Amino acid sequence: MYRELIKPAHTKTINFAHGLGLPVVMHSCGFIEPLLPDMIDAGIDCLQVIEVKAGMDLLKLHRLYGEQIALMGGIDVRALYSNDRAVIDRELEAKIPIVKQGFGYVLHSDHSIPATVDFETYAYFVQKGLELGSYR
Question: Can you give the pTM of this predicted structure?
């Protein structure tokens, strides 16, 4: 159904954006892994948010598609709303050193940051992520 109904519209819209010199960041919640080859063929430049609780696997997507598109997200927000730095460290340390290699990765959670995440926790998440990997 995606290939028949949605992909042609995605391709047209993405081509229009590219014609204006704009990159295309595709936001999609849920488990969209089976659609990703067609989304890449349609021309997306980056996939965002890579929802862990829906079954999306950042490391697998990086391995399969990390040389074709940039990835943004895939850091389980449940680690953040634990407000536990050790839990956050484990999540980031398991992913950032791997995904910072290749085409490009943008640090982001896999979902909106809920109000239950303390500001200090979020600031720690960003700082720790930058320490583990950044582009010069």
Answer: 0.94
